[in-house]
Amino acid sequence: MQDYTYFIFALVVIVIAFVLLKKVVSCLLKSIIMIVLIAVLAYIYYMYFMQ
Fold first, then answer.
1. Would you write out the chain's pLDDT as a tens digit for each of its 51 residues?
2. What distance lies between CA 30 and its chain's CA centroid?
3. 3-state SS of 1-51?
4. How far apart are the C-alpha atoms of 26 and 32, rounded to whole Å?
5. What phi and psi values does residue 50 have, to the nearest 5 degrees?
């Protein structure tokens, strides 16, 4: 019986880790996209107004 409880506990931990990782990765991906967009806009601003 102890093997089943260990298996269920491991399964629950894997599911929780997957959900948390998915949320963290989506947040990081949004942050990276925003940083890239800000860098592109800064480059366009610099090239347009500094000529």
1. 667 888 888 889 999 888 888 888 888 888 999 999 999 999 988 888 877
2. 7
3. CHHHHHHHHHHHHHHHHHHHHHHHHHHHHHHHHHHHHHHHHHHHHHHHHCC
4. 10
5. -100, 15
Q: Is the pTM of this model over 0.90?
A: no
How far apart, in whole angstroms, are the C-alpha atoms of residue 10 and residue 32?
32
Residue with tokens 């090239």: 47
Structure tokens at 30: 């949004």
Question: Length of the chain in residues, anyone?
Answer: 51
As given in the structure block, the two tokens for residue 11 are 């399964």
